[in-house]
Design a protein that fits this description.
Elements: H1 8-24, H2 34-40, H3 42-52, H4 57-66, H5 71-82, E1 100-105, H6 156-162, H7 191-200, H8 203-214, E2 222-236, E3 245-261, E4 270-279, H9 283-295, H10 312-318, H11 321-329, H12 336-364
Helix pairs in contact: 2-3, 2-4, 3-4, 3-5, 4-5, 7-9, 8-9
Amino acid sequence: MYVAVKGGEKAIENSQRLLADERRGDRHVNEVTLQQIDGQLSLAVDRVMTEGSLYDRELAALAVKQARGDLIEAVFLLRAYRTTLPRFGASEPIDTGRMAIRRRISATYKDLPGGQILGASFDYTHRLLDFTLAADGERPEGELSDHVIDNEMPRVVELLDRDGMMEAELPADDEPVADLTRDSIQFPAGRDARLQALARGDEGFLLALGYSNQRGFGNTHPFAGEIRVGEVAVEFVPEELGFAIEVAEITVTECQMINQFQGSATQPPQFTRGYGLTFGYCERKAMAMSLVDRSLRASELGEDVNAPVQDQEFVLYHADNVEASGFVQHLKLPHYIDFQSELVIIRRIREQIERNRGAHQEAAE
């Protein structure tokens, strides 16, 4: 829009050159590489892949670098690139039950079959600044290698399901799965569309909604049934073969929240679930997603809908940080004519008020 302003195009070009210069920073400091971003800022890369809905570590690292660390801008860049890619088909559903596990914890059972696997987590740190990291030194000898558990481990919800205490999974139907990258969301939205929107949704927004639910603005009492992080195989069925072949291995985080359900006229008291799944290691996002997913199921479970986190339209329309950012930031663009028209209206209203005030004073005299 600024191009229409006299001299606007040249100003935009200069702004872009200045952006590139500031992105590079001090020339006396080595430029950060994509490998460094991927390896040392891996959680930022994971978040950008999840909310950008494209699993490609190198492209996500490039987006983080280009956006100067602004993760919402990086998500925008990755989504924009995603729209240029051809689509060959849909992969088979991943089987997280066969995950090569790096981390697996539960807040509901102390002694799990397969055990609790703490993995790498900030949970057990003291949140004190580590000034040794400022020394730019190598890690000491004897560094730990990644420890992965390859054997299958039953999920906590399967233990409850075995005792008839967990809601039954709905059987798969033949209806096509919603695709928010091609079709706009419609309300009431099915759970497939809701989970897609939540997976792409802003972590901070979902975190705030999940927290609001825990503080009483909702009707759930959640327990972290299981959180697991690890690698899963991605399979695809080529038309010329007719059977599934493994095409990739990706890292995912899965969270299943367990919530008490008082029962209804058709269902006995039992536990219900909220589900979250993300690319990479995005544990906080997966937990927030599962909390919000369960809250959005209120209507289908016959619960009262009286909190923002239970309102589909409120949650799903506002969760998308790319759309939200665009709508907020468009206010920076020229609105000269709009503002001038409102300025005229305000002046006329003030003039009318002054005339009415003068008329009242004359009548009083």
